[in-house]
Amino acid sequence: MEVGRDHGVSFDPFRNYLLRYPLKGVVKVLFLYTRKIFYHVFPALFSRWQKAYWKRTLSYARKISARNGSRYLFPRDYYELQFQQETVPALVLAEGETVSQTIVPEKDSALLMGIFPVVHELNPGGINAFNVKIELTSVESTRAFNLVFPYDRSDLWAHYGPGQKNIPLTLNLGEYTGKTVEIKLSPGFSRAKGSKADEKMAVCYPKLIKRKTEPRKIIILSLESMTDLDYLKHHYAFVPPMPNLDALVQDAVSYPYAYSTTEATLSFSSSVNSGLLSSQHGIGDYRIPCESFFQNTLNPSITTLSEVANAAGYLSTALTMAPRFSPKYGLARGYDIYRHQKLKTEPTTLSIEHIVQNLKTFADIPQFIFAHIDYIHDPYFLFRDHLRPTLVDIESYANRDRQKIFSNQLRYLDDQMGLLVDTLKESGVYDSTCIVITGDHGCDLNWKKHCQYALYEERVHVPLYIKYPSWSKFRLEPSRRVNTVAEIHRLIYGLTDGFLPEYFNKLPQYDSAFSEFVFSETIMNPKRVRDRHMMAISDGAYKYVCRNRIDWDRAKILEKQEEFLYRYSSAYDINETKNLADIEPEKRRYYSDRAYEALERNLAFLKKFPTKKF
Question: Are 89 and 113 in contact (CB under 8 A)?
Fold first, then answer.
């Protein structure tokens, strides 16, 4: 019997690897054991080599900009520290190293930070416990706290094991309101007998926050592969009743004609973070593995939603599930906590329940939460924990009835929406919470991988619902047709009393001269061919689509290839099989001029703000 997870026995990755690739497996095992011997025989030399290696590749790969680092206490270098599924801004301290800062807390202020030990994978038993000493000194008094956490063992008070997340800590500073106080922080370790480990302590997102009885909350919920529900109801009979979502929509502003900027998650992840169209930020190359350190990322001059929220005093958290939301795309920038689950099939599946848990953990703290949740995308059946289907219908499973499975997943989504709303109401913060619901792109009922035309209506027409909070008088005036990411950025800047960046002014999705149009694009696809590009521009009467070749490095159109023109017969009906480009040449020229004017603006922007390597 082959050793593996499928047999319900202990999983030995080395043996499994050897069975499949004997020679490669031997090399890999020898490398790992050589590393382990090097670690234990020459710990000091190994530590120096490891630190240099980490700074170039792993945990310390990305230093945080001064703009974002300055928002935290303790003026030190901060790094995007990747720890299991979380990426956090952190400073890394050696044992006995002290950091301090003098502050004058305002009313209702509290200290907030997270900590976790950076324990080397080759030395999991090297420490018995870790601790952090916190000292507050004012003119009147000195208070000291020593927090001790057992590591991979239990005592009567606590247990912390390898692979667990950061420990969020808070301390009320009410007694120091208006007073000068110095905060000192120092880590320590209780080492195992004979251990030569050189472990470190990570201190994450240390900041002052204001605790409120009714704190402001902003939740942006992006649903993977979610087409506008009214569109689906118009074309299909399988959409089930969704009472919980319907009740939420009653309290919200609904956009019946909202469009995604793209048909692919990779481009959307950067678009929703930046407010840009795909050809403006230039990120969409599926050839590069999602965990590669050679990803293109947003230009650092582009302000992200997370940075806007962080600057406005919110604790910013991202909960994402999809390979193309990897922090290696630079998406963790500006977030205090960025949690990323690469695959839906991982042991702990990200869901709305994690949003609920996050809301409860930081109940009295202003929060900005962006969540990308997958209930609709394949694989449809997951036989694990709460995702296990209660009963599998043999006929629909055997026939791969996608519509029935899609319907079941919509019911599950509705249950989860009910859980979110109930939690907010029970906590007394429903009225003070802004909720935004949208989709990265539409469903895959008729989608085929690497298809030549993926900008069809069902794929780009997505939901957009905005429930405004009681504390804001800001309201958007919904136009007939909107691009979701542009509307979301207008919303967040408005709620935080900010102004849209000047570089938005001449971009088509923000320019009133293009207000009647929505834009959707495919870049660097299909079949992962990098110079490919397709743009759709529509106004409710016609939909114009052009196919091009683009040099993304020089932000230049190489070739205009094909044009398509389709006519809407109703709000939800369009024949995308009959090309009217030659039948209605005047219409084609009109939409073509508008589309290429927009594209030239987009590429000029990309040339000014090119992507940067991770």
Answer: no
